[in-house]
Amino acid sequence: MSFDNYHKVVEENDTVILYLGYENMHSIKVRGGHTFQTKYGALRHSDLLGKPYGSKIQCPKGYLYVLHPTPELWTQNLPHRTQILYSTDISIVTFQLDVRPGSVVVESGTGSGSLSHALIRSLLPSGHLHTFEFHKERAEKAEQEFKEHGLESYVTVNHRDVCQNGFDLEHVADAVFLDLPVPWEALPSAKTALKKEGGRICSFSPCIEQVQRTCEVLTELGFEDISTMECLVRNFDVRTVNLPIPDLGGGDSIETSSIKKEKNTVDEESDKKQEIVKSNADGDKSSAENAKQTFDFIGKKEDKNFYFKSGVAPTQMPGHTGYLTFATLYPA
Ligand code: SAM
What we know:
Layout: E1 15-21, E2 24-29, E3 35-38, E4 41-44, E5 56-59, E6 62-67, H1 71-77, H2 87-96, E7 104-108, H3 114-123, E8 128-133, H4 136-148, E9 155-159, H5 162-165, E10 175-178, H6 187-193, E11 199-205, H7 208-220, E12 224-229, H8 254-282, H9 287-303, E13 323-329
Parallel strand pairs: 7-8, 7-10, 8-9, 10-11
Antiparallel strand pairs: 1-2, 1-6, 3-4, 5-6, 11-13, 12-13
This protein binds S-adenosylmethionine (SAM).
S-adenosylmethionine binds next to helix 3, strand 8 and helix 5.
């Protein structure tokens, strides 16, 4: 199996994503002779072998799709051993750290390997990820997963306490990422790990006091361009706007008055929807709940053949799980 090299058909030992719906996905390792229980009944792994990725697979009571894994799908389906970073934050991290093919990146802690998979995809085919984790089993499990996913040549997993013992890397990294409870303790060693020509650093922290402390130490160490970001999820409110019907003279025909009546109903529904979105935004519901409620509301109206469409699919990916602090180290 290889996450880095897309292949067309499902093979023995591939890690695949079973897609039964946006909110119902599973990752499995395909092994002939095994079965996997889905809400549509038992799926024999052997039914997947040789099928092109993207195929519709019939189960006893319904169907699913078999998908090639990507870092984003892996993030949504990986076994959680820790809290993880989601693709919303990950996209900012890879962009702001300027991770690209050939980059050398240092990361700690490895955790469940969610961010690691995305970093590796961005630095392929010639870069390298050095990831550090002080929990022995997590480090071993991550190493095993990278191997199963065909990524072992792009990543070195180190079992190490980076706050106590540092990274033991000198001037090799283009970027460093920290997801640690006390990131400031690892900053001096992170600075040494960055290349002499400088680089970027990011620290992820859920609480603002950690951010303040990190910023202070970054400043003491000579980092510049320090900025903290948070990624907030916002739902797009997509609507078709009905323009007023022009008065072309000659009075209302039966046809135009019926269009007007329907338009008025549509406008009323649209206003009601706006109110729901606003009251949800004012309240303390999560964005996912807000989006779902909006979507359900519109879905019902669509069933009654209203001729406008609106709403977006429910948002599943959490935003703002923490603050992302970025900084640059310039050459001395
Ligand atoms: N970013 C990861 C992901 O997306 O899957 C999740 C990281 S998890 C929140 C934090 C990890 O840091 C934990 O697995 C923890 O064991 C590890 N950790 C905490 N302190 C550490 C230290 N001093 N040295 C190395 N790893 C550490």
